[in-house]
Design a protein that fits this description.
alpha/beta, two-stranded antiparallel ribbon, 8-stranded mixed sheet, globular
Amino acid sequence: MPHEAAELEALLMERSLTDEELLRATDAAPEYRILPDATVIKIGGQSVIDRGRAAVYPLVDEIVAARQDHQLLIGTGAGTRARHLYSIAADLGLPTGVLTEIGSAVAGQNASMLGHLLAKHGISAVEGAGLSAVPLYLSEVRAVVFGGMPPYQMWMRVPAEGLIPPYRTDAGCYLLAETFGCKAMIYVKDEDGLYTANPKTHPDATFIPRITVGEMQAMDLHDAVLEFPVLDLLKAARHVRSVQVINGLKPGNLTRALAGEHVGTIISAD
């Protein structure tokens, strides 16, 4: 291993960081999974939190019960308030990076509210540098809450069309799961899973219990239950090679999904 490390260091000093031989060399060692026993749960902003007490309180009860058997990283979406602010900011001619900061603020507000609801159970909301304490939270209380927006802020990739940030809370929660090498990624939404079209506007849409990234991209399901850019992240993943989308408005679905049941839709890289 020291010999391989020396070769890699030599390549890093001599080659461009996009050099093919260098990239292959960085793949030589298997990646270390930082939190292999943790599951990331994304609680939808518009789909769940914006619905208030009726939607959120039952999920709080499920989370409190589930953390006895599972380590939980709970991310929050931004929801309706972010959409309203996006419309104002876009009308003012502000760039995507500014819209990203606005969306991050709203996701953080939702994390704060959920964190306060879970506070009496010892579950806290963290942000920014606080993520470094996640292993301690998981060890002591087995759950922690965070705002789901990825930390790109002004450095958000500019979309090919329009101004809306392409990587939002679905992507942010997934990136956390993949980076930490977590066990699973579950999206808690207000639909049973993925359909051939948006069931809110197309009541005749067909439910899809299982699908691959390639199949989903071929069907061009942009108006889907999951942010489309997440598919590219999933396709390139090393650890979290599938995600599960469930209806969190149906009591017990989250508990069943955490137990490994095929609830909702499973989207896999392969």
